[in-house]
Amino acid sequence: MKRCDTWRADRVRFAVSGQGAQHFLSAAAARCVRLENIRCTGTGYEATAAGADLLVLYELADKGGWEMTVRTRRGPGRFVERLLARPGVPVGAALFLVLVRLLTGFVWAVDFGGVEPETIPALRQLLAEQEIWEGAWLTKEKLSTAQNALSAQSELFGWTSLNFTGGCLVLESAPAEFRQVQPQPSAKSLTAKAGGEVLSVEVESGFALVKPGQYVTAGQELAASQKLDRNGTPVTQAARGRVIARVTAQYSAEIPLKQTGFMLTGRRQEQTTLHLLGTTRQSEEPDIFAEGITQIEWLPLTAGRLALPGCRCRVTRWEQAEQTVFHSEETALALARRDCRRQLGEQFPDAVIREQQMAQECDGKIARCTVQYVFAADIAMEEE
Amino acid sequence: MKHRKPRPRRSRQRFDPGSLLAQPPRQFYFLPELEIRGGLIITDGCRRVLDFTPQTICLDLGEGIVTLYGQELRIESLSGKRLVAAGRVHRIELKNKWGTDHETL
To answer: Which residue, of A55, A99, A223, A287, has the fewest CB within 10 Å?
Structure first.
């Protein structure tokens, strides 16, 4: 095998002596050792060779019974010479360091930590507004801006921190905790917003005027904010609390069988943008629908389980158009029942239904439903 | 009488154009070489250094033995079968290894 002599920098000047020392020269040449500047010294020879071949020369001298001594040695040393003999090693190491320095400036992965999965799309969108995604070059300014934008989302997080190390953007956060502050009670009395039988009186302040088992009518005063003491002097205390009563209420709803409104047509358009190592390539922009629902998906690029510095952003737009829908009678009646329930929930959010009686009819154009609920709910409301 | 310059005799050997395309002798490119370039004597195909003194360098070139005679002879480089010698060369002796032919330059 031909050996590369280009990088041989370590030079050794040695002397060899003994009987038939010229054979040593031939033997060294046969082992592909390059000898230079060979001089006859009388008792032997002096020559110059590469430091890397010194072991071979010693071995030959031992084998042939010659005496070999090193006179001078110059050069960067054996280690450096061997390193230089394989230039791919230092060049590869330098290239590796450069690539590590360069590539870790890009975002390879975004770790959202323990953030709820339903919150992640909103966070993605927020980061995308700051031009932060997998494959983007991240600067301190960008990171700081994104941090400020995240901190502004006080309804989502109580505390947030964005850390970027080794190409991984880590979002640390703590969920927001809300503490209800009791409003200062006003000096108003509590009245009934519907009539019924009082089941329990939970008045926290003020002066209760009703007792459990008592029937009250709509607008009747349930708790007063003022009372006269023995001397006839009025004592004022803001009324607050709950009065649970059994109430009977009736709700009705009408749903036409033919309805017109904005609805999804089933057509959609996709637009994919590829972000890779700071570059962006967008697919041809389709004709965007005038009306529609937009869905944005961020799909990081991976090779198996290995993250790559890039991602695809897929924007899907679902078309909405004004359409006429014909409900069946069963569907229209079900919608009417649901509307009655919605009305009850709006008026009495804490209602617990005990009984319900339903009357429904459909004349071919409109479905009508009337429901009478018997329920328990808080009927106390502040006097207007 | 005008003296005419004698014409050189043409070789009677007939020229064969086909020899231009003929292959060189067998193992031609593996035969040893001896080249004198300036003050250097370059040999390719040197099997062994038989003798080396400031006055003599004797080399084994396979079937032949080359001996350089002179003063302050030295070997500049020896690597594989390539040897570069230098010094004041007075005489080069080419000898068949079996002693049958002998030539001096």
So the answer is: A287
